Amino acid sequence: MDGRRADGAFQLRTNPRLTLFRSRDSERALPRHGTWFLAALLSCASVNDASNAIGQAQTALDGARAGEADRYAPYETTLSDMYLAKAREEQARGKGAEAQKLGEEALKYAQTASRKSAERRAAVSTPPPAATIQHPRNLGGSEAAPESQPPKVPKQ
Q: 23-38: per-residue pLDDT in tens?
């Protein structure tokens, strides 16, 4: 006898007063727990990727704002800011893959804002030519009237 009962469980003696019965299913518990450990480990990698994407997007957005993107590309700057806030929210909820995607979108819009603001600043830095309008001195004729002395006022 090897200590097995009729239902397939076997008797494990750890102490003469303490006897434990374990089934064969409990022997497979380690691989199941190992699977959960592996899944948790992989989810940590996803969180790190999300953190990297969010950090890159924040850096790009700060650079775009330094280049006056709020003034020259407000749509892209606002979108990047909103995607970045949503990415941080998803990361806090433990949804690393979704946070990473949102962080990448925020990065894309921040880079677009930076590019557009640089282009628009360059277009504004060259002022248009000044308008030169010449008015005739004499509105009634085509030639200018000769300048004359004002009439003298008699003394009393």
A: 555 555 555 566 656 5
25: in domain: no
Question: Is the full-model pTM beyond 0.70?
Answer: no
CA distance 61 to 109: 8
Beta-bridge partners for 22? 10
Residue 82's domain comprises 43-124
Cα-atom radius of gyration of the chain, to the nearest Å?
40
Query: What one-letter code names the amino acid at 79?
Result: L
Smallest Cα–Cα separation from 63: which of 76, 51, 52?
Answer: 76
- Give the count of domains, the chain: 1
User: Which alpha helices (H) appear in the chain, and where do they start and end?
Assistant: 29-66, 69-72, 74-92, 96-125
